[in-house]
Amino acid sequence: MELNGVKEMVEMDTVDVLVIGAGPTGLALGADLARRGVDALVVERAGSLFPGSRGKGIQPRTMEVFDDLGVLDAIRAAGGEYPVGMIWQDGRRTSEHRMFDPADTTDDSPYSTPWMVPQWRTQEILFARLEELGGRVAFGREVVGVEEAGPGVTVEFTSGAPVRARYVVAADGGRSVVRRALGITMTGETVDPHPMLVADVRISGLDRDNWHVFPPSADTGGFLAICPLAGTEDFQVVAQFPEGTDVDLSLDGVRGTVAARSHLAPEDVTEVRWASDFRPRAALADRFRAGRIFLAGDAAHVHSPAGGQGLNTSVQDAYNLGWKLGAVLGGTAPAALLDTYEAERRPVAAEMLGLSTRVHRGETRRGAATRQLGLGYRGSSLAVETRAELPADALRAGDRAPDATIGGVRLFDVFRGPHWTLLAVGTDEEPQAPAGVRTARVDAYERYGTGVFLVRPDGYVGWAGSTTKTLPEYAAAVGLTSG
Q1: How far apart are CA 84 and CA 445, in angstroms?
Q2: With a threshold of 0.90, does the pTM exceed it?
């Protein structure tokens, strides 16, 4: 910096990874990097964590991610199952409505249904885990400048010293300052032109056993839904308004909406703890990367809240990127590994955006697809399948590695942690594991068939074969060396 012709030395922090945004995406990434020993800093422009319940649904695949990150017990203790929907008409209960198609817990999928945890509580849990692992979060750091030069990126803030990082991850939301600074556009559509209210409130005179739904009428112009938030004393109120309405977020405004659309009196709403208005939109960033800067979460894709896909897709962005940054920064993997982040995650985000939109418009139910257990990366350059003539339903490279307990060995226990896993299933093959790779052997298991599977740190099959003949070539390409 130069002032009146005199150069001023500006103190600058230096880190390996700067994560911008302390929402679920940034905190999950920060925790994952911390357990890998990466020097990372998470910065947040607000003075504290986000206070609202907005993204309250955690899908089964994200529960598996949280299992691996070491926060599953806290997540389960903090939340609960979704209640049955109760349809009201003229002050009377008229029928029940199941919000989600039923699903059974199986050996390969131990978490079968969505779990409700208010977003603010999910963030508290991830924040505590990040700090437990030695990670750092700096609040009150609003980004005003981003410049890539040489082998790094310099980020400036409204206050505090600039930060120089080898890589930057923008997880700063749908209005991402970083994305706009990079000139990356988002392509999308308005899913619904009607404004929506979402608020966390305290209500008396309403049971917590149901998700209460009040259909629209000619008088109200939109529906009202009141959902008890598991693990809290709060309810989440969601209301739709006619196009062009200026939504009143005040206590009186929320009281008026609830009273006009339900049998409740205004005074039954005793407190508004957080409130926001929005217009459902679906949009996808044209790129997820610009040089050493990556986009993740809402900065890369914006969803309708219907179907509970936004937070889950975002956390899984972080889960995909974390191990790749760790491997490249650790010097074991080539920088080209980072190219697979956009190649793998952008198609998934596009698919989930379409799903969210269809759920919002009532074109599909909240079923198997919304649970995200079937997502995978078969088309990725990191998915190498060397077995021939597999059945149509066979597990292949690129698929999620299922769970099971076989001969007293639980596979998710073996996979848990920041390592790769070499798994031999129903074969006498004696695999030579690359350095740092955990090994396990189990009897034949129908979901896997037989063979040898190299499972990535994020729980997907990277390489699969009947023998390990071609494994060394794959291992070298992803930064693993022979043991």
Answers
A1: 36
A2: yes
